[in-house]
Amino acid sequence: MHEFSRTSEIVDAVLSEAKKQGALKVIEVEVEIGDLTFLGLEQVKFAYQVLTDKTIADNSKLTIRQIQGRGRCGSCGYEGALSYLDDPQFHMSFPTFNCPRCGRPLAISAGRECIIRRIRITK
Amino acid sequence: MSSTVQSEPGEIFDIELDENLKRANELIADENRERLRNHGVRTVDVMGSVGSGKTSLIEQLVRLLRGQYRIAAFKGDLTTKIDSERIASLGVQTVQINTGRECHLDANLVRKALGKIDLNSLDLIFIENVGNLICPADFPLGSDKRVVVVSVTEGPYMVMKHPFIFADADVAVINKIDLAEPMKVDTSRLAADVRSINARTSIALTNCRTGEGVQSVASALDLKHVS
To answer: What residues of chain A have any CB closer than 8 angstroms to a CB in chain B?
Structure first.
């Protein structure tokens, strides 16, 4: 959800920085979106095209790096990917937040990101 | 002698931004949390779909706890005052937060609501989020505890369909247990679903119309009550 408003925030931040840098055009934007963040990537890409239309970021490339959810276990020391439960009967796959090794609750260490890493401009 | 280097037209520059778009809300949530802790006020964020029983749960908790705690309630709603009027009729201070078109509460709105009350006169605030199990997951408010309410009338898959909201849930309330039989919903299955997503989440089974099970919610939230 909120693909449009989040992408709007991305475009605003990009245009603001580009203006600060005296850019002629923005040619590429690289963002990181965690897979636990509630954003549909296709919709983000679409919203990006719409929102950059007629701006100096028009036709720029949006590169989305997806960050996999990761956790840390305070009990057994596990550090790594989350486990996902699959239910083939209902075509559902959902993340769990318990340690894949010992089953105790994990502290989430990655996967919730929504970060603009860098922009590529011409002057 | 000085020399100047000039960029060629069309030269490419990479600018590192590292701008975290969630940070703005997180910072305000942290501020809220700090402010509430400094005043010794406990806060509980109550989430759940429309009609799951959030307001009924808060009503029952207020009845149970108003002897031990000075309570206020915040209610997020798109347009109406219906729910906050129900709570206000119990004699607690309520602040209505009309979110307009927004489908979730955010830390900024809660900050504004905190400005409308005297924190020195309170011990406990219930924040009732907008009826939605998806969006609030991404917007921490700065509360101590988060409660997720699902009801058996929503069917057997509510937990599995909304895993993300349970990542930060302290308590899952399975409500309307009196209707589990006619709905053919297995509440122990729902409880098992919660445990498989997050072993940290306490589980309470309730009938918020009669108050059955509400004491276990209060206990799970570390709220003292007289049995």
So the answer is: 1-2, 6, 9-10, 13-14, 17, 21, 23-24, 27, 36-38, 85, 87, 90, 92, 94-98, 103-105, 108, 112-123
